[in-house]
From TrEMBL:
<dbReference type="GO" id="GO:0022900">
    <property type="term" value="P:electron transport chain"/>
</dbReference>
<dbReference type="GO" id="GO:0046872">
    <property type="term" value="F:metal ion binding"/>
</dbReference>
<comment type="similarity">
    <text>Belongs to the NapC/NirT/NrfH family.</text>
</comment>
<dbReference type="InterPro" id="IPR051174">
    <property type="entry name" value="Cytochrome_c-type_ET"/>
</dbReference>
<keyword id="KW-0812">Transmembrane</keyword>
<dbReference type="Pfam" id="PF03264">
    <property type="entry name" value="Cytochrom_NNT"/>
</dbReference>
<keyword id="KW-0408">Iron</keyword>
<feature type="domain" description="NapC/NirT cytochrome c N-terminal">
    <location>
        <begin position="18"/>
        <end position="172"/>
    </location>
</feature>
<keyword id="KW-1003">Cell membrane</keyword>
<dbReference type="InterPro" id="IPR005126">
    <property type="entry name" value="NapC/NirT_cyt_c_N"/>
</dbReference>
<protein>
    <submittedName>
        <fullName>Cytochrome c nitrate reductase, small subunit</fullName>
    </submittedName>
</protein>
<dbReference type="InterPro" id="IPR038266">
    <property type="entry name" value="NapC/NirT_cytc_sf"/>
</dbReference>
<keyword id="KW-0479">Metal-binding</keyword>
<keyword id="KW-0472">Membrane</keyword>
<dbReference type="InterPro" id="IPR036280">
    <property type="entry name" value="Multihaem_cyt_sf"/>
</dbReference>
<dbReference type="InterPro" id="IPR017571">
    <property type="entry name" value="NrfH"/>
</dbReference>
<dbReference type="GO" id="GO:0009061">
    <property type="term" value="P:anaerobic respiration"/>
</dbReference>
Length: 216
């Protein structure tokens, strides 16, 4: 009798299921938490972060200036945010870095503790520098340049690319206080088919081409 009682007591003690009187409240609570979780994922557009779409970066409006300056730069045609800002050693490193940065950014933006001027952390600086070299390897390892330009090898290995190319591709540093009203990008900026070369410049280029052809 005692053995059976102890056995039943152990089963109840180690059971993860609630007793009958708590089953309904437990189901309701679990359903509410599950629904809240799905709503949070939907509201935060969490699945968009699995893609390489640059528009995912403007889910948080404080990144709007960075998106707008990139959209007007020459890099728009050849590189997305992830091409520069996440490692490309392997798929695990890529998504681990995205997850780590994403959790940090979520915390900062949720608690409204973002800095006035957004600057890359050391880990991001290393990744960006590696990606600059990955895409522009021919320029930074050019044997002719290394043999003719003084201190070329030292300069390309001891400093970051943007110490010289400081406005590529985001332009001058902007603070949140000066661009805080930019809640989301304007339609003309997000239009990927928009012509970024001014009309007057296109006309000038065409005229110069025509003159060269006539002279030939």
């Amino acid at each position: 009798m005692n053995d059976n009682h102890n056995s039943d007591h152990k089963k109840r003690r180690f059971s993860i299921l609630p007793s009958k009187k708590w089953q309904v409240p437990a189901i309701i609570s679990f359903g509410a938490l599950l629904g809240l979780g799905f709503y949070t994922l939907h509201f935060s557009k969490a699945t968009s972060y699995l893609s390489d779409d640059p528009k995912a970066c403007i889910n948080c409006h404080v990144m709007t200036p960075e998106y707008m300056t990139w959209a007007k730069s020459s890099h728009r045609r050849v590189a997305s945010c992830n091409d520069c800002h996440v490692p490309h050693d392997n798929i695990f490193a890529k998504y681990f870095f995205k997850a780590k940065d994403g959790l940090y950014h979520s915390y900062v933006f949720t608690t409204r503790t973002e800095p006035q001027v957004i600057r890359a952390k050391e880990a991001s600086i290393n990744v960006i520098q590696e990606n600059c070299i990955r895409c522009h390897e021919n320029q930074v390892t050019d044997a002719k340049t290394a043999s003719t330009v003084q201190h070329h090898v030292e300069n390309r290995t001891s400093r970051t690319c943007w110490e010289c190319h400081e406005q590529v591709p985001h332009g001058n540093v902007k603070s949140l206080s000066s661009v805080g009203y930019l809640i989301e990008p304007t339609t003309d900026v997000t239009n990927e088919n928009e012509q970024i070369v001014p009309e007057w410049l296109q006309k000038n280029v065409q005229e110069n081409k025509s003159k060269k052809q006539e002279n030939k």
